Amino acid sequence: MNYLDEFRNKALVQKTVAKIHALSKKKITLMEVCGGHTMVIQKTGIPGLLPETITLISGPGCPVCVTDHKFIDTAIAYARQKNVMIATFGDLMRVPGSSSSLNAEKAQGADIRVVYSSLDALHLARQHPEKKVIFLAIGFETTAPGNAVAIREAQRHQLDNFLVLSAHKRMPPAMSAIIREGVRINGYIAPGHVSTITGADIYRFIPEQYHLPVVVSGFEPLDILQSILLLVKQAEKDEARVEIQYQRVVSPKGNVKAQNIVNEVFEPEDSWWRGLGILPESGLKIKPAYKTHDALIQLPINVPETKEPRGCICGEILKGLKKPSDCRLFGTLCTPVSPVGACMVSNEGACQALFRYRMRGD
Amino acid sequence: MCLSIPAKILEINNQTARVSVRGTEIEISLFLLDGIKPGDYVLVHAGFALEKIDFKKAQETLRLLDEMDETK
Predict the structure, then answer these.
(1) How many angstroms separate the CA atoms of A55 and A170, rounded?
(2) For the CA atoms of B9, B12, B16, B18, what is the dihedral angle to 10 degrees?
(3) pLDDT more than 90, % of chain A
(4) Which residues constitute the domain of residue B65?
(5) How many domains does chain B have?
(6) pTM of structure
(7) Chain B stretch 11-40, residues whose beta carbon is closer than 8 A to a beta carbon of chain A
(8) C-alpha closest to that of A16 among A186, A216, A196, A220
(9) DSSP one-letter code for A330
(10) Which residues are paired to A245 by β-bridges?
(11) Tell me: the pLDDT tens digits for A296-343?
(12) Helix axes A10-23, A221-236, angle to 10 degrees
């Protein structure tokens, strides 16, 4: 078993789709909150396989999409400083800031390196003691543990030129905000890789407080279809509980070792989300014990007032209140080649997913 | 951003492992996971193994789908 092909099996997909059609009677709307799910759903054409009773909408699960313009503007301001090297995941390169992007800055000579792992950024700091290496740390609970390891290792090896601009986000406060904002959904397809770290128990408040079912899903087509089936079953019986479809890696308690490393290095802080505003304890900042590696403390910088692009409805789309096709910029002024907003720039944003895989059918 | 892929552990050297992702070999960190041995499959994200993949549970998931009666 390679854990990919088995979960793309056509016969089982057809069987699961048939079962969903047989059971689904109530009209329901399900939200997937992970950008990875958004991409797989559009790429594999799942919406076209479902009965008319089921609507899928995308939520705020793409870090690039929900992160403040100010983060990019700050990174750009750092990139323009002397003796600074920026290390970043590739996802951020094309995100437009208020007046530039990291890609544009690199083209003009700024020292910006794309890394695959936080440890690659740490390696750059070791190789370039003459530079401050600033690692742009965005991501959800999935990514935070690895970034925490890099900070801890930098401290252990006294690599004081390794700095981190932290904008980590935590998923549960956003899932709760979506419901409190009155977005009408009947269940959550919960993020499988976030849950691998946190455990599925972090979602228990959702059925308890809001009577909404939650199914933690894997990322292959069969995983997503089985999760939809489990949500349909709960909805038909008017039940609400947390179920784990992605049993092969997700447990109720998660990866405790990874959680401990995160808690050692980071602490919760209030954080701004595109579309949702400031949510209490929805971000992670570096603890004072590790301030030697906190870019904002070691290298304070002035960033001009940030501007959001005009006409872009990315914020409403991230809440599931509007569809990409409701935006007058979608597919005309805003395309993956020349994106206006974050939901089109990110390769797991709802706008880009729809543009890439669904344009012909819509 | 949370994209993670299954990889097979080939060789372990302290906190680093050489893994195969469908034949492509890369090095990953084992800082976040204990008790891994060659031959295990792990879920890899941004250079770190996040969790061991449970073969029995994967089989069980597939069995449930295969055995269900799709008509009722």
Answers:
(1) 26
(2) -40
(3) 86
(4) 5-70
(5) 1
(6) 0.95
(7) 22, 29, 31-34
(8) A220
(9) B
(10) none
(11) 999 999 998 887 788 999 999 999 999 999 999 999 999 998 888 889
(12) 20
Q: Where are the beta strands (DSSP E) in A45-90?
A: 54-58, 84-88
Measured between beta carbons, the chain B residues lying within 8 angstroms of A143 are: 1-2, 45-46
CATH at B17: 2.30.30.140
User: What residue type is assigned to position A323 of the chain?
Assistant: K
| Segments in chain B forming alpha helices (H) | 55-67
DSSP state, A294? Answer: B
Cβ within 8 Å, pair B45-A193: yes
Q: Hey, what are B53's tokens?
A: 């993949």
What ipTM was assigned to the predicted interfaces of this complex?
0.96
DSSP letters for A200-235:
GGGGTHHHHHH---EEEE-SSHHHHHHHHHHHHHHH
- pLDDT under 70 in chain B at which residues? 72
Cβ contact B70:A15 at 8 Å: yes
**CA distance, residue A117 to nearest chain B CA (Å):** 5
Cα B50-A270-A175 angle, rounded to 5 deg: 60
Residue A276, both tokens: 């949702």
